[in-house]
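REQUEST ID: PR-0412
SUBMITTED BY: lab tech R.K.
PRIORITY: routine
TASK: structure prediction, single protein chain
INPUT:
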Amino acid sequence: MASREAMLVASMMAGAAFAQSRLGNVHAISHTLGGVFNIPHGIANAALLPFVMKFNLPACPDKMSDIAEALGCEVKGLPPMEAGAKAIEAVVQLNASLHIPSNIKELGVTLDVLPKLVEDSMRSGNVLINPRLTRSSDIRTIIENAYNGVL
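STATUS: complete
OUTPUT:
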């Protein structure tokens, strides 16, 4: 019961955070992957996160630097882009420690439906509030990079 209670509290806290911060490309793409490939939403989010962070880094290096610091990275004195890149590295390491696949191919994703994945992801309102302006070609690249595990 204590574990269930803790999960309920964590879920509520996540919902409160979403209400304040909004979502972005990670959720837009993960909703699509879940719908097409029946991948659990949290796993899809975690697997996609480093790839979307890499895409977003040029648009918000200061925020990414703050994330790196919050994740315990040493960023003092680093330029924001370099410090922000450390956040991506930290998420990759966290995912590995949790046995989250380093690519979406391991989750059963195939690229034979790539046009559908791009189209469905672009229909999400989450794309509109992503920190970096996102076009269909960007979603395509993010999915291909996540499939191939290329950061």
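NOTES: The chain has seven helices and no strands.
REVIEWED BY: pending
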